[in-house]
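Morning, I've got a small favour to ask if you have a moment. I'm working through a protein record and want to make sense of it properly. The fold is given in discrete form, as structure tokens running alongside the sequence. Can you walk me through what the tokens say about the fold? Thanks so much in advance, here it is:
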Amino acid sequence: MNVSRHHPLRAPRIRTAGVAAAAALGLLGLSACSTDESAGKAADGKLAVVASFYPMQYLAEQIGGEHVSVTNLTKPGVEPHDLELKPRQIGSLADAGAIVYLKGVQPAVDEAIKQSKNKHAVDVASLTHLEAHGAEVDGKHHTTGDGDSHSGEPEEAGHDHDEHGHDEHGHEGHDHGHEGGTDPHIWLDPVKYAEVAKGVAKTLAEADPEHKGDYEKNAGALVKKLGALDAKFKDGLKNRASDTFITTHAAFGYLAERYGLTEESISGLDPESEPSAARIKDLHKLAEEHHVSTIFFETLASPDTAKTLAKDLKLKTDVLDPLEGITDKSKGRDYVEVMEANLAALQKALGTK
């Protein structure tokens, strides 16, 4: 497996110097109203937890339960990579009881957290292994794949061959696309998402030792819930007519690997990058060869390229949600509901029986 250092998907909207200056202003503004007793606490006395974007918010809320008050830096409807932090948001990081974030998704957030020097900040990317994914991720040749069969059952998706999954398998032979890099989308694989739960619980317990037992119990319950979701995907994607799906950007590489699918993305890891003419030509050929029926787009990024490609190929379009935020347009109220909607969309597109 390719374990890489974190590379931001694009340049931060707020430059490092700007973040440092804003952090200094924010810290000065907040320090006057902070006391030892209130440090790290919300107005209701609960542990104040800051989450960088929705998947981190869900972790914090599920594991923290009734003992935490969670603030999401990324408002609903905002594409996380486009987030522009306000000085007070940056300053609030120092006073937070805990921070849950995923390094590499939002460079400006990463820098602001570094400047805050908060001792209870957990980067969930450090709790699992990240891989280098390109515009194509071929999951049929990984340990959780189904070989060359279109109707086989993936190996136990909830039980990896080693602690973190695919470590013994390199990906140089399988990721053939452009616009590659370290893929941060671990939350779209229920197994990888579950791997980080205990680490988040540990950070919350260090910030709030009084409720350590509850955090550990809640983390266990979340792992069980994600295990059930994994089982639904494994069972729901059996007996399919095709393994290949096309998406606007390469958010679903870990999911493809987990269930023996092949993800072909239009634009690579960056949802706003423009595909080359050669990539569009490749997708035309791939769609015909692999009996692709549907081009997937997402809720927070422009669907124009996906719809144009679908029109050219006379294919259908549908939503496959990378769950970077929950809005009124989301096909569910939370992570599990939207993932179940994603499963239903994949079942329809891949022709499961």
Summary: Residues 18 and 125 are 25 Å apart (CA to CA). The chain is about 40% helix and 10% strand. Residues 212-236 form the longest helix (25 residues). The chain has a mean pLDDT of 82.
